[in-house]
Amino acid sequence: LVDTAKKEIDNAEDLQQLNLIRVKYLGKKGLITSQMKKLKDLSQQERPKFGAVVNKAKSEVEDYLNNRMNELYRIEKQKKYEKLRVDVTLSGARKDRGHLHILTKIQKELEDIFISMGFEVVEGPEVEDTWHNFDALNTPEWHPARDVQDSFYFTDKILLRTHTSPVQVRTMLERKPPLAIISPGRVFRRDYDSTHLPMFTQMEVLYVDKNVTVKHLKYTLEEMARKVFGDSAKVRLKPSFFPFTEPSYEVDILFNGKWLEILGAGMVDPNVFKNVGYDPNEWSGFAFGLGLERIAMVKYGIRDIRDFIKNDVRFLENY
Ligand code: FA5
């Protein structure tokens, strides 16, 4: 009986089957348990002997069962974990990853360059009033830049800013000199061709301190050009005119053997200082406004400025 029990126990495939075997042999009416009922038919002398044999069989089968139970338990647990296991060496399904837009990258690059020179990033509103956008910047009513042909007006006093220069005004009104700020952002003009967009990105740079000269301006521009375009890049200032700077310059950068105009610059006009309550006899400064699309075009050889806003992935993936 013990041997057949053991065989059955060996063949049990899971804990459920094993439990049925336990009932079959060791349950209240089990095959081994019920052997004890034979005791009453035996003689006084035979009873202890027979009892001992049955008890031994019982504990033998019990031990055997328990061993098999532990074994099956281990195997089932193993199977469960096997199912959950992840093969970390399998190669994953490749996902297309996005990246920053070329303009965002250029903006961050320029921000880092100026931050490393001690400039601070400030922001201004895209919807401006004519005072901040023009008057405070010494641009009188009759100036052609104010023309409705060139600017997007909401009312006669409110418009989409045409450049980032009003942020100069807002910052100087809020703070006392000296100051060194940059201000990147969107600006809007009625322009549209392969080198002009109606919405484009400028970055204003303003430095105000005592005894600031054109040399400081030129050094800052050269430093910027070297960092953006490499050590061989050269900077050239050409006389120009802006109402809010005196003298004013158009700035060319030599890159890949070509001189390219990418920004307007100059020494802050004394009238602008007066308009924000700075004493022009005490304070001086330089300012410039970069076109970020133009910088990216020069750096990466992009021919048509309209590619920036088409959102064509085939273009964007190149940068
Ligand atoms: C200005 O906007 C002046 N506020 C810059 C300035 C600031 C001068 C501080 C002095 C002191 P301008 O209109 O030249 O200047 O524009 C500056 C740059 O913006 C240009 O050199 C060019 O790179 C870019 N730009 C101008 N118009 C467009 C346009 N429609 N699309 C793309 N880029 C443009």
From TrEMBL:
One of its GO terms (molecular function) is magnesium ion binding. It is found in: Cytoplasm. Its cofactor is Mg(2+). One of its GO terms (cellular component) is cytoplasm. CDD domains: PheRS_alpha_core (cd00496). Residues 100-298 form the Aminoacyl-transfer RNA synthetases class-II family profile domain. Keywords: Aminoacyl-tRNA synthetase, ATP-binding, Cytoplasm, Ligase, Magnesium, Metal-binding, Nucleotide-binding, Protein biosynthesis. It comes from the Bacteria. The keyword Signal does not apply. Mg(2+) binds at residue 246. Its main location: cytoplasm. Binds 2 magnesium ions per tetramer. Its EC number is 6.1.1.20. It catalyses: tRNA(Phe) + L-phenylalanine + ATP = L-phenylalanyl-tRNA(Phe) + AMP + diphosphate + H(+). It is an enzyme of class 6 (ligase). GO terms for biological process: phenylalanyl-tRNA aminoacylation. SUPFAM superfamilies: Class II aaRS and biotin synthetases, tRNA-binding arm. Gene3D superfamilies: Bira Bifunctional Protein, Domain 2. Pfam families: Phe_tRNA-synt_N, tRNA-synt_2d. Tetramer of two alpha and two beta subunits. Belongs to the class-II aminoacyl-tRNA synthetase family. Phe-tRNA synthetase alpha subunit type 1 subfamily. This is Phenylalanine--tRNA ligase alpha subunit. It comes from Thermosipho africanus (strain TCF52B). The lineage of its organism: Bacteria, Thermotogati, Thermotogota, Thermotogae, Thermotogales.
